[in-house]
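QA checklist item 7 of 12: single-chain prediction sanity check.
[x] sequence parsed
[x] length recorded as 280
[x] structure emitted
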Amino acid sequence: GRAYSAIADDAYAMWWNPGAAAFNKDTQIAATHIPWLQGSGIDDIFYEYLGFNNYFYGIGNINAHIIWLDAGTQPQTSTQNEDLGDFHTYEVAGAIGYGYEIVPEKIGIGGNFKLLYSYLGPGTGLTETEGSAFSFAFDAGALFKDVAVDNFNASVVIQNIGPNITYVDKDQSDPAPMTFRAGLGYTVFDNPMGRLITTAEMSKILADETIYGVGAEYTYLNLIALRGGYYSDNAGEVEGASFGVGVHYKFSKRYKLGFDFAMVPAGELTNYNKIFSLGF
């Protein structure tokens, strides 16, 4: 259900909540591939994520990730409708982050610094200026463990704190999509046979309506995970149930390889986005 900021514990934590990365003592790599809106007649939009984290004793968790949104190719025409060839639209963000336990096993804080580049297309006709923008932003987050009762987590996150995004000139700039997140997570049980986690989250982007998500994950023998949730974004007209499954395999008593697949609601253009992830 996209409600992850209070339970994140892997190389995706830096994106959802940089404070959650503070508790991660492992070295991990994570990669995600999403064929975005495919099934709606669109076949060339892709969303990619690659993340890495490593824990340094006495220092904290150092992490980094890169995100690439490829919006495919579009035809370019002049004001007289002449064909000028195709152009490629894409956006990329690279981030470095840090997480630290200010109270061991209780309170973790963290932050990210990211550089952003967006290329919409070349200038044509009345708009000769190239449609590109370069900017930066910060994220900050905290995760609180065992709040009031054991196994109950709470999260607070602010993402994309930064200057306006300018494509053509400052008079037409757009504010960065500053986002506030608050989440709760509770481990119902955790034993050698299985583990059940429930989670809920609210997020808000600037003046948009609040987005809500809830979810649960059951893991059997630390091998197979089943996930389900519900996501509601009225402003974006995206609402519905989400589903997921994961298979994780440990070997050599030191390494673990995981594969995850999810289907999340995508709005009116297509019912679901399919998400493929690998972790090591």
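[x] summary fact logged: Helices lie at 13-16.
[ ] second reviewer sign-off
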